[in-house]
Amino acid sequence: MKKRTLITSALPYANGHLHLGHAAGAYLPADIFARFMRLSGEEILYVCGSDEHGVAITISAEKEKVTPQQIVDKYHFANKEAFDKFGMTFDIYSRTSEPLHHETAREFFADFLKKGYLTEKEEEQFFDKVAGIFLPDRYVEGVCPNCGYDKARGDQCDSCGAYYNQTELKSPISIVSGKTPEVRKTTHWYFAFDQFQTFLEGFLQSHEHEWKENVVAQTRSWLKVGMAERAITRDLDWGVKIEGIEGISDEKAFGKRLYVWFDAVLGYISATKIWANENKEDWTKWWKNPDTDYIAFIGKDNIVFHTLIFPAYLHGYGDYILPHNVPANEFLNLEGQKFSKSRNWSIDLHDFLADFPSPIHVDVLRYSLAMNFPETRDSDFTWKDFQTRNNSELASIFGNFVNRTLQFLHKNYEGNVPELSGKYADLAQDWQTWAESDNADADAYELFVSKYSENDANAVRSLIEGIAKSDKNFRKYRFRDGITDIMNVARAANKYFNDEEPWKSGKSDPEKCAKTLFVCCQFVRTLGVLFAPITPNTSATILNLLSQNNYTGQSQNANPIAANLWKEASYPTLKSGSPIHKPEILFTHIENDVVEAQMAKLGDKEAKNSQPEQELIDIDYFSKVKLVTAKIISAEKLPKSKKLLKLQIDTGAEKRQILAGVAEFYEPDYLIGKIIVVVANLKPAKLMGEMSEGMMLAASKDGKLLFVTPEKEIGEGAEVR
Known about the structure:
The protein is an alpha+beta fold and 721 residues long. 42% of the residues lie in helices and 17% in strands.
């Protein structure tokens, strides 16, 4: 049985406008794939929607003095409108505030509770008496217990990077009331990810040869550290309630909400249910039928949620299919720097659409982003590249060929596809036979050379091979390569037109000239289909000019078209005598002043194009910091702390105790005997009643924390400089 394909894009957070980095990460690649699959006659469902819960939304609501619902409504509809104008073809764009989503998330929680995957734990947390609420980590600030930074957050210090429990903060202040909170006990539920370690290792192993290297590497690094239980509830008044779930008293459940990262991924399932209800379909065939391949498009910051956390939920609940592939992209930068709205170094999608409302400019953006997809490493969007892609590729290659062909047709053939005659009478049938063979082999090529010409053979072979290559690359999520294959078909078409010189043969050899324009008309139609996933507006224009079906892969409510239009794009289906409308310029050149105006908008208005200044130190200042290697003699978890481990270390000169915020990333036994790097001359600090006489160095990235160690065995007591 032919497989169907379920496609999801990471649910964008309804707390702000989407920027071009988001578009290039999880959305445009998925849309190109979805359109391609629909054009190939495949049965697909493309699901997305807004992630509308969590602390960040409640904070935004308080700052703007509105309700959380007003915040999510504002950004849900703004982002949905931007997506629509950008050409996204979701079958459904849902939201996690929908009642059916709440119902679905509660079903998963209740099932895990019954199966023993959830552990109830009592812990201490700050409580704001004035506001009458427990304070999540982002709702409290204070003095870092490690370095003394006075704007430390409730779980981590942005100055020194130390992790701690919020109750360890000195001089804590609630950002809700501005008052000092008190410590109270509260209850939360933890999901036992550790019970899924073996399953997840096997799941990764079954896909490690087909997934991207960056996906495999990040997933493997988490598994190497070991899966640990994590809290899936929070004390909030916004989100999915757990009251009324069997097995939890209403008293304990009161004021509890599901942690946003728990319920967000379940939004894919709830959105599918909503779509199925609206279309009188069976949602389970998309999530519980092994004949469905599930492809999850995300950015690299969401990899483990889709390769470890979501699969654990699906496997734990049972009967659900698991992700077949997770083609995560890296990050897109802007003009060599990271996107930053605080520094005004960003291009929001809705701002671009306001400045460039033309559908053709939307296509230019889609093309320029796609040719810079961060598929294997971080990439860069620049306005200069945007201009060059338009002028030198879309306008000068793709658009130029379409325009010159149709202009010549109207000037010399009254706008009709020419008749084939004489030695060229069988060309269309021979072309069809070659294309249907699924093999651009030497025999077919030689036949074309002998019956027609080398130019004809090279052109048809380039078209057939280009379509086959693009198909293969798209199915492997190599979109840049696939689009390059398509543009190469346009290059071959231009070369064919130039080499054939119809402006000469029209007088000296009319049969040849008619053949040339017949072939070129077929190429125009082919390019209209092939560019449809990338530049759908332009493709619709071309296909309309040809009086052809202008379908560009948009949603059909998961009902596939009968034909494989992608394959048929290699056939000469335009009939002789078919009328073609007068052409129009597809892509106009983008001038320098347009690019310069956009560049002028970037950066701080008082200091454009400048990076935030970083405080520099001299060598004398740095030499005051004494770094040495040390061996960990013993390690144990610190009671009442989720993040701190108590380590006994040997620096070579002495033994001492340090506290390290790595409990969520390392089991104590794993660390014993390891050589680490420590700051040996740091003033002792008291954390949770224990002395810490130094600091262990660790590297932080993508939510992971890894200790720093020498490249080769060097033992304890070595000076690091």
